[in-house]
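ok here's Ig-like domain-containing protein:
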Amino acid sequence: MRFVVVLLLVGAHLAFAGKHSLKYFYTGVSGDIDFPEFTSVGLVHDEQFMYFDSNTMKAVPKTEWIRQNEGADYWTRETQTDINQHRLFKNNIQVAKGRFNQSTGVHTYQLMYGCEWDDQTGETNGFREFGYDGEDFLSLDFKEMRYISPVQQGFPTARKWNNDRAGLERDRHYFSSECIEWLQKYLQYGKSSLKKTVSPQVSLLQKSSSSSVSCHATGFYPSGLTITWMRNGQELHEDVDLSELLPNEDGTFQRTSTIRVTPDEWKKNQHSYVVKHQSGTITVDEIRTNNGDSVPIGIIVGAAAAVALLIIIGVAGYMVYQKKKGSDDGSDSSAHTDPHNKNDTRHVGNII
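and the structure:
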């Protein structure tokens, strides 16, 4: 996967039936920046249900269903887990800077981990991915139960963790069993809200006859929505810009896709777009410009009963990654930290 910079602190939902996911994002930042040094976000179906940052030093609920079903002991454990992760990240980001020969500037390090469960097939999957400064650094191949790195700076960590068979076995147990159990519990907590669907309101807008054309979908829930532009029946990929998925104040979402075309291209070709969402079908057949003129262009908006899309959003801050002080030749003597402390409700990261 490609890591990117995001600054939202929101979540999203997916359809209740089929594949389900539990994800955690740990983000660490080093340097002079007006942002928490460490943040942690937990998501079920990409809905943010908990949050922690190093400014408040307290894990808090972000949904009503987790607030109603877990008490003070749970949040005390979550807080302690995140405080421990904060210490690890502070150490690891310094190691990362050393391996990349960096001493100044703003740098980020992130861990994303979690599990997936298909309630129809029973299939499960686990993932654990690290990144540094927005690029892949290290990841777990769950099927092979081994860590791999696309960059030389990650090789020492991959060698060390792959040689720690006990640590790999703990990883296997967590992702195939413990994580799935927590996911199923959270799904039971939030089953009523996870079934909610709201159809998108779709508008086609153009500032002037010579400007780009935008399809704006808003008010939809869950967040799985695609916008596809077509020209003479063929799907377009060039000259198309898709915006970030954004939250509305009422808990729904909005998204915009813009196509860059000249007036002559509009006249000579038939353009349409398809909006896919699990809630139904909406049709829009005209562009409305700022001066009130309507410009018919044969727009087709279709929403099929599509498989809900996984859209990972709303993860706190800059993408970060995790490391421990040690030599680049792999002589680092640290080992896996125990990811399954009986007092913790979730996986604890490793020292790199």
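+1. The helical segments are 64-69, 72-99, 155-162, 165-189, 191-194, 263-268.
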